[in-house]
Amino acid sequence: MIRTLRWLPALCVGLLLLGLGSQAHATPAFAKKENKPCVYCHVVPGGPRNFRGLYYATHNHSFADFDNEYEAKLAGVSPDAMGPDAKPTVADYPNVHVDVPPVLRFVMKDIDGNNVNLARYVGKVILIVNTASLCGNTPQYAALEQLYEKYKDKGFVILGFPSNDFGHQEPGDNQQIKQFCTSKYHVTFPMFSKIDVKGDTQAPLYKFLTDKETDPKFGGPIEWNFAKFLISRSGEIVARFPAGLSPAKPEVVAAIEHQLEQPAPSENTN
């Protein structure tokens, strides 16, 4: 009995060390909170942060507005990178300075629910359109897709924002909208989650576009589905086209082509 008692302290110490060892490899609180593996945010478990970890640490420990593709671009790594491969190659990430015009300082949800920082479109000519599936203007999807296919390689992009604000003509959920757009009109330009473009629950982007203080020249309420705002490469709102005006009309095409001829502003990453 006495001999057994002599071994108890050593046994307790051994068990304690074993417990500490296993604790060192336990999933950290933040990994549990976000339901991510350690290498999602770290080069190695418990090691230096990769680009996601640096973003997380400098944004109040939150991924609420995190756009993986955009942040990976700023960090100089692949969006799919994990662990060591996700270590930033840009020395001052996440404090990289990129001039982002006010109209692109919004994070929106794409049609699949992923965060999209509109800053990823800096330097592009952008057509922002509120869409609907059951509207008399819905066939404009075809003309929009044709424009996108024709000019996308020159730096043009269309951002489609479904809305049920007019005549309840967009009643479906995001996946139903996506299925409709891709199957009927073969849409490939970026589509976003359904939002409100007017009223008390108006999306901040559309508040910016329609507010006379932020958009004195083209601001004003959205009149119907398929109103169109044209954004220059420098991020200036340069035109607004009525909901009923087809994107194939010469004045729309000419305005887009004119903006594409303008030089893209250089991104300052110093």
UniProtKB/TrEMBL annotation:
Family in the record: Belongs to the glutathione peroxidase family.
Domain of life: Bacteria
A GO MF label: peroxidase activity
GO BP field: cellular response to oxidative stress
Keyword annotations from UniProtKB, A to Z: Oxidoreductase, Peroxidase, Signal
Signal peptide (residue range): 1-26
Keyword Transmembrane: no
Identification of the protein by name: Glutathione peroxidase
Family matches, as PROSITE patterns: GLUTATHIONE_PEROXID_1, GLUTATHIONE_PEROXID_3
Chloroplast in keyword set: no
Pfam family of the protein (one): GSHPx
